[in-house]
């Protein structure tokens, strides 16, 4: 018989068939109307009382539950023994816990062993350990895909109120479509990138994402695990639900359980989050230049929150309060440069959008081959349906977010040394130092020929981008401003909105920004002074300046012109300020270089 048993509360010989059967029949399990699923994202900590106590309680309590542990996904019994010891810490008697040793190496016998099946008839919780999920399906499904007797008995128990639970691999196998890494030579790959680049396949040796039949305990979507901890899980789950024509994907963090009731209602329990990907309106275009996905909706729920797949509605823990969509708890955001990293998606959804006046949050994810990088931009955006909550549940501060729009699009980048990428037309001397300083920090851009064009007029758009990149500016609170000549999806819209919100530049009477219009030196003087002030600059005592063309300066702007000279933001040429001439890109670079006051200049 392939069963290992724990405990010694009987004079019967431990390990004997009679001992096992008698011990499990001493107290029959409490029957439930229908069964539950506990789908755990891996990394379940022994001190996670909320999950362990809920599992034991739903199984009829510590004195009534009968737990069968399956080491099937693992290559050893060690983790199963540790899990048994943890259950005993939660008052489950040792003689109510059994390890059912069904693994690929012995499944030809153990998956139909009469003693195992007889033992399982007395169990009401069936717990699958982590490891390789293919080992579970390989052991419990026949070659034709039908159930082995052991799996059939588990399904019977589930239909009569039993509980199927599993962590990591034991979570992945519970949905109809089972995800796994495939075709990769190492153990820590960016499998999400591979899913977007190479797609899904039922061939585990093919590059991309392996999708094979799971055990179909969970009928409401695809399960993914280690979601917030392993790289790129949002990318691979997003592609999987679309390719499998499944509406929902459930990405479960470590130390967190998704508890599924008989009605299909799901509840989050534990310390992490469950990310729900809704592909109901998603569209995917896949081709030579990567995979683009539009129309996804993403939600993230935490301990105590519930979700109904039938109605696509969330019920948030009463300990959380709704966050006003225009709350200025946070204002603005930064580009998340590794959206595949640990916790990066939560950072995007929570700090980037929940309680933030910002309506969009972007993150990128790149893989490099030499100096060339390719990857994907993830853009998260609030919609009219988006809702956010925050509060303290179980002594842990947490957020909940529902219905955030998500777009995934291909991008490229490059890693090259400064020497090979320097602009061709950097001037010499101190002006060149200013230009290099701003170019390297992304404040002054070059064109496709790697030219700065320092003598060209600076446009209002150029100036807005440079200012927004150089100093910290808050975006507008509330709804985004309407700019008549600049659509909200324009690349420079966010920078212009920040500059307008800060009062550094203004719209004209027609509500236009006039992005391509040059700005005169005298108009720029006050703008640059205000930027200088916002960055903590202090004006010195004004000196007298002999401005040869002072009569050409508008009287209302004379003070700002003089102050710009006094602070060194602007200069004269042979005593001429040239107020009506256009501010050049070099003028702008030198002024912002002064404003930033780099420490290494001292």
Strand content: 15-25%
Name the overall outline. Answer: elongated
How many strand elements?
23
Structural class: alpha+beta
The level of helicity is 25-40%
What is the mean predicted local confidence, pLDDT?
A: 89
Distance between the termini: 80 Å
Strand order of the largest sheet: 1-4-3-5-6-2-12-13-17-18
Number of helices: 18
For the biggest sheet, the summary is:
10 strands, mixed
The gyration radius over C-alpha positions equals 31 Å
Low-confidence sequence ranges: 1-33
Structure, briefly:
The protein is an alpha+beta fold. It has 18 helices and 23 strands.
Descriptive account of the structure:
Helices cover 27% and strands 23% of the residues. With 602 residues, it is an alpha+beta fold. The protein has a domain at 418-601. The strands form 3 sheets. The chain has a 10-stranded mixed sheet, with helices on both faces. Strands 10, 11, 14, 15, 16, 19, 20, 21, 22 and 23 form a 10-stranded mixed sheet that branches. Strands 7-9-8 form a 3-stranded mixed sheet. The longest helix has 14 residues, at 521-534. The chain is elongated and about 105 Å long. The chain starts with a strand and ends in a 6-residue tail after the last helix. 46% of the residues are buried. The model is unreliable at 1-33 (pLDDT under 50).
């Amino acid at each position: 018989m392939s069963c290992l048993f724990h405990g010694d509360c009987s004079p019967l010989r431990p390990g004997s068939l009679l001992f096992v059967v008698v011990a499990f029949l001493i107290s029959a399990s409490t029957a439930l109307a229908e069964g539950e699923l506990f789908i755990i994202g891996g990394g379940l900590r022994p001190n996670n009382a909320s999950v362990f106590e809920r599992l034991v309680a739903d199984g009829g309590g510590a004195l009534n539950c009968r737990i069968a542990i399956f080491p099937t996904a693992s290559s050893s019994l060690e983790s199963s023994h540790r899990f048994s010891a943890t259950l005993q810490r939660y008052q489950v008697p040792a003689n109510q816990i059994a390890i059912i040793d069904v693994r690929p190496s012995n499944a030809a016998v153990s998956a139909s062993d009469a003693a195992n099946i007889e033992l399982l008839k007395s169990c009401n919780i069936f717990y699958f350990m982590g490891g390789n999920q293919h080992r579970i399906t390989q052991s419990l499904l026949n070659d034709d895909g039908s159930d082995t007797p052991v799996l059939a008995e588990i399904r019977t128990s589930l239909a009569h109120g039993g509980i199927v639970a599993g962590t990591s691999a034991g979570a992945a196998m519970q949905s109809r479509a089972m995800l796994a890494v495939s075709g990769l030579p190492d153990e820590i790959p960016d499998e999400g990138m591979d899913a977007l680049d190479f797609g899904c396949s039922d061939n585990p040796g093919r590059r991309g994402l392996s999708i094979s039949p799971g055990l179909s305990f969970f009928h409401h979507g695809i399960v993914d695990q280690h979601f917030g901890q392993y790289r790129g899980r949002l990318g691979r789950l997003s592609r999987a639900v679309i390719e499998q024509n499944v509406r929902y994907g459930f990405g479960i963090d470590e130390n967190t359980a998704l508890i599924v009731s008989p009605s299909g209602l799901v509840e989050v329990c534990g310390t992490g989050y469950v990310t729900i990907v809704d592909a109901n309106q998603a569209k995917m275009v896949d081709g030579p230049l990567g995979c683009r996905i539009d129309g996804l909706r993403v939600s993230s729920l935490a301990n105590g929150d519930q979700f109904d797949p039938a109605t696509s509605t969330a019920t948030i823990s009463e300990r959380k309060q709704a966050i006003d969509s225009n709350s200025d708890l946070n204002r603005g955001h930064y580009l998340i440069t590794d959206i595949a990293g640990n916790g990066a998606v939560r950072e995007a959804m929570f700090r980037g959008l929940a309680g933030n006046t910002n309506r969009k949050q972007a993150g990128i994810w790149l893989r490099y081959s030499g100096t060339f990088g390719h990857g994907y931009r993830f853009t998260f955006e609030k919609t009219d349906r988006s809702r956010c909550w925050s509060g303290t549940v179980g002594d842990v501060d947490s957020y909940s977010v529902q219905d955030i729009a998500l777009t995934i699009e291909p991008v490229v980048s490059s890693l090259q040394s400064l020497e090979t990428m320097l602009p061709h037309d950097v001037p010499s001397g101190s002006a060149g130092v200013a230009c290099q300083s701003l170019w390297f920090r992304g404040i002054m851009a070059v064109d496709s020929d790697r030219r700065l064009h320092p003598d060209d007029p600076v446009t209002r758009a150029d100036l807005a981008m440079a200012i927004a990149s150089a100093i910290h500016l808050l975006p507008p609170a509330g709804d985004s401003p309407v700019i008549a000549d600049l659509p909200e999806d324009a690349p420079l819209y966010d920078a212009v909105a920040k500059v307008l919100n800060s009062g550094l530049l203004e719209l004209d009477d027609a509500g236009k920004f006039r992005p391509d219009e040059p700005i005169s030196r005298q108009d720029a003087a006050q703008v640059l002074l205000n930027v200088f002030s916002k960055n903590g600059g202090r004006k010195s005592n004004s000196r007298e300046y002999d401005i040869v063309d002072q009569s050409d300066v508008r009287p209302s702007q004379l003070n700002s012109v003089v102050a710009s000279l006094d602070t060194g933001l602007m200069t004269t040429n042979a005593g001429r300020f040239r107020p009506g001439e256009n501010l050049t890109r070099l003028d702008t670079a030198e002024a912002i270089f002064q404003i930033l006051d780099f420490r290494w200049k001292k």
